[in-house]
Specification:
This protein is an alpha/beta fold. It has helices at about 10-25, 40-55, 70-75, 125-135, 155-165, 180-190, 200-205, 225-235, 325-335, 370-380, 405-410, and strands spanning about 1-5, 5-10, 35-40, 60, 80-85, 90, 105-110, 115-120, 145, 170-175, 190-195, 215-220, 235-245, 250-255, 260-265, 270-275, 280-285, 295-300, 305-310, 315-320, 320-325, 340-350, 355-360, 385-390. The protein folds into 3 domains: about 1-100, Rossmann fold (3-Layer(aba) Sandwich), CATH 3.40.50.980; about 125-310, Rossmann fold (3-Layer(aba) Sandwich), CATH 3.40.50; about 315-410, GMP Synthetase, Chain A, domain 3 (2-Layer Sandwich). Helix content is about 30%, strand content about 30%. The strands form 5 sheets. It has a 13-stranded mixed beta sheet, with helices on both faces. The chain has a 4-stranded mixed beta sheet with strand order 4-3-5-6, with helices on both faces. It is globular.
Length: about 425
């Protein structure tokens, strides 16, 4: 049913484990309770996950590296009553409240302001997402999902593990981010479909021996920089991309990725509105059961139905009335040999209103003037970075994304 690293667990073993966890945790005595769970071992976490879901409870999964104090804080912020921390006797966090509400998967999202926001989706909504995903995205049929990202995140849990089980596959869950171990696991699996972060995919594409390719890979979470996309695409037979948000789950899937900004075709259970063309992108908005979900992403739909990303509304830089999309600048800079990462962000300007600031990292020192000359030949005047700084490395979050807010906060005072 599930393979975790080199250990196979049959359906019977998983069902017995689920029943044992339900008994140990006394889930039957706590109907409607909200739990947080943090476990070092994936099989322990998954056994409890299946048990809580079957019991109709609500669950906040926490990344296995979360310290106890941070786990308690997250549990309180999410309104949880109990915390499981590497054990099956839960710690009481808050008095239980009889709500009668259906069980939910609870997630913490940064939202549009950066402040933590609690997102709770019913198990019924997640089942609907899985059925829509499986019915609409048919290309992976016959492939084995290899989940090289945390199953405590919805990407690995829902799209990797639960969708794989729904297709009748035996998902392979890897507890390590070691690229060499991931490559070893991929070679042991027939027709593997790798679920991983863009950073892992790029690393694997660089490590692959000449003449070897990844059978299939899924990218999600953040758009691939153009140089990364070109490298990964060249070393992958089938490259997929999915797009979504915490409030709605997976929104669209691209079954044959030929451009990094092509997010995919919208899953049929969603109703969505956005811009109608590249010259007039608008916010991507989903009709929700109670209220609309605003993604804060600018995009449009092509005539063939493909959803295309333009920029984050929060990231768009307005230079003298002209929009600059950070990705356009970043892709150009990252195409310069030696540059490894780049982030463009806005800074206030007394004359233009806003100007483009750029922070980049490189394998060796790259002079700022080299960056300026490179950009001058490849970008319009309003897209030119005014402030440019080289950093040793750019801060990344646990999911592999570069933290734009942290970059902007760290380098907002950098001079021209």
């Amino acid at each position: 049913m599930i393979r975790i690293d080199d250990r196979h667990y049959t359906r019977r073993e998983v069902e017995e484990l689920t029943a044992r966890r339900a008994e140990e945790a006394r889930l039957h005595a706590r109907p409607g309770a909200r739990y947080a769970a943090c476990f070092a071992r994936t099989i322990d976490w998954l056994g409890l996950f299946f048990a809580i879901r079957a019991a109709g409870g609500s669950l906040l999964p926490l990344h296995p590296s979360t310290p106890l104090a941070a786990a308690r804080r997250a549990a309180r912020d999410a309104g949880c009553h109990y915390l499981f921390f590497d054990g099956f006797t839960p710690e009481a966090i808050a008095p239980e409240a009889e709500t009668g509400a259906p069980g939910r998967l609870i997630q913490m999202s940064s939202g549009t302001t950066g402040a933590p926001k609690v997102i709770a989706r019913t198990w019924e909504a997640i089942d609907r997402e899985i059925e829509s995903y499986v019915g609409h995205f048919r290309e992976p049929e016959g492939m084995t999902p290899v989940v090289a990202c945390p199953t405590t995140h919805s990407y690995g849990l829902i799209c990797g593990l639960l969708v794989g089980l729904r297709r009748g596959a035996e998902p392979v869950v890897l507890d390590t981010g070691n690229p060499k171990y991931i490559l070893k696991a991929l070679r042991e699996v027939e027709r593997p479909l790798l679920y991983a972060s863009p950073v892992i995919l790029h690393t694997l594409a660089r490590l692959l021996p000449e003449g070897e390719a990844i059978h299939a890979a899924m990218t999600s979470g953040t758009l691939l920089p153009e140089p990364w996309f070109a490298r990964i695409r060249a070393r992958t037979r089938h490259l997929f991309q999915q797009y979504g948000c915490s409030e709605a789950g997976c929104i669209a899937v691209n079954p044959d990725m030929t451009a990094t900004s092509d997010l995919g075709y919208v899953l049929p259970h969603h109703r969505l509105r956005t811009g109608s063309g590249p010259d007039a992108p608008e916010e991507i908005v989903l009709a929700g059961p109670e209220e609309d979900i605003h993604t804060r992403d600018l995009g449009y739909r092509r005539p063939d139905g493909m959803l295309v990303f333009a920029s984050r509304m929060d990231d768009t830089i307005n230079v003298s009335g002209l929009n600059v999309y950070p990705k356009d600048v970043e892709d150009v800079v990252m195409a310069l040999p030696g540059v490894t990462d780049a982030v463009a962000f806005r800074k206030a300007d007394p004359f233009a209103g806003e100007r483009v600031a750029l922070v980049y990292s490189a394998a060796a020192p790259v002079p700022v003037q080299t960056i300026r000359d490179w950009c001058r030949e490849r970008l319009a005047s309003h897209q030119q970075p005014a402030d440019i700084v080289q950093a040793d490395a750019l801060p990344r979050m646990a999911n592999g994304k570069i933290s734009r807010r942290e970059v902007a906060a760290l380098y907002a005072g950098a001079g021209r």
